[in-house]
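Entry, Tuesday afternoon. Goal for today is a structural model of the target with pyridoxal-5'-phosphate bound, before we commit to ordering more compound. Inputs were pasted exactly as handed over by J.K., no edits. I checked the ligand SMILES twice against the vendor sheet because last time a stereocentre got dropped in transcription.
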Amino acid sequence: MIDLRSDTLTQPTPEMRRAIVAAAVGDEQKREDPTVIALEERAAELLGHDEAVFLPTATMANQIALKTLTQPGDEVLAEELAHVFRYELGGPAVHSGLVMKSLSTPHGLFTAEQVREAVNPPGDLHTAPTRLVCFENTHNGGGGRVWPIELIREVVAEARAHDLSVHLDGARLMNASVASGTPAAEYGREFDAVTLCLSKGLGCPLGAVIAGSHERMAKARRYKHLFGGAMRQAGIVAAAGVYALDHHVDRLAEDHANARRLAEGLAEAGLPVDLEQVETNFVQLDAARLGLTADEAVTRLRAEGVLLSFAARKDVLRALTHLDISAEDVEEAIAGTVRAFSSSQRPVELAGEAPTPY
Ligand SMILES: Cc1ncc(COP(=O)(O)O)c(C=O)c1O
């Protein structure tokens, strides 16, 4: 099976496992774990902030960021497919008493104008005070799209003009950085809080970090403990993070090249892939245009040895390249996908939409 369901599926490499075995550890809750401290220092610098806090998951990192930057009853703006909005089980309401307002976009990137129009009037007695804007880079639901730094600066300036805080869900920020050539710190410095996941493209078994000012991270550490995320000999896992920052960042370019090759191979075979969408390690395949539901398409692919998952939009499948997918795997995946859809090769023309090419 060529497993392209997610970039979270990677196995720790033998070298990463060696780093884990060799890790010096201590009681992380007491700030006595040297490997966690080393990872936090690396992450703070990488993300352009004073301090970083090591956490078990990127979901916890996002939820702590929101709690740190808001008061109960505040309103938060996020893109409609943002992870923090759609896929964290209503955590902002449960953990922090927040109201979420969604911004609609084609690919996850919103504009300064959208923020301006969404902000509730300050002092209004009938609406929740808008307090925070959440960004996601790369944007998962949008198919791994990258925010250009110029657009981020424009939208952040609008948010600041309304006295709003800004948070960056940078679960895949290193993909964005490698694809755009913008250093992660340059992205990170624009925000009050920035998170980074270690268990996606970076290939760790688990772990995430949040970064911000010393004052904000003191609060974040308190919420980490409150949420049950304060650990003990966590250096065992942090060692994988340090290893990944040393060895798995530049190689993300290979994942991006593999995704591009996959998309082009499928498009050349006449399959409905939007080549413009492919900026990082995501490829989207529109099952509806093959006259199939996402379930039917996944079943056919599985029979040909290719595993894809559902994208955020209905009847669209996604393939993610990652550390465990080689250039040869990509060629096999292309061949398997073409076999899977050989009986529905001709893309369906959907009502009211432009026909192919894709
Ligand atoms: C953009 C984004 N943020 C946050 C998360 C949450 O990550 P975790 O599974 O580590 O909680 C994900 C997971 O897919 C994600 O794609």
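The longest strand covers residues 130-136.
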